[in-house]
Amino acid sequence: MANKKEVNRVKAVLKEQGRSQSWLAEKLGYTFATVNGWCNNRNQPYLVDIVRMAELLEVAPADLIVDGAKKGKGLTESQAFTEFS
Q1: What is the pTM of this model?
Q2: What class does CATH assign to 10-84?
Q3: Which of 47, 51, 74, 83 has its CA 20 to 30 A from that of 59?
């Protein structure tokens, strides 16, 4: 699965903070399998769970989400203004 699309950064933020998936699962009250699915982008957390994770990890919710525009998948600012003005 080399071309797996990343939607969230949960695994990266946990690694940056030296925290484990088991720790997050326990704090959220979910199973390890649920959190592991999020960390490996097999499943995606609900927005309410992203907010709860952000509070636990002391980051902004946006830090847990991959910005598609930064990967060149969205419209550039100039395209957005040109095409929709």
Answers
A1: 0.75
A2: mainly alpha
A3: 74
CA atoms within 13 A on the CB side of 30: 18
CA angle 40/18/70 to nearest 5° reads 50
How far, CA to CA in Å, does 30 sit from each of 33, 34, 78?
8, 6, 42
Distances (CA, A) of 42 to 27, 45, 64, 65: 21, 10, 15, 14
Task: Tell me what pLDDT residue 4 has.
Answer: 66
Domain residue ranges of the chain, discontinuous segments joined by +:
10-84
Give the amino acid at 81: F
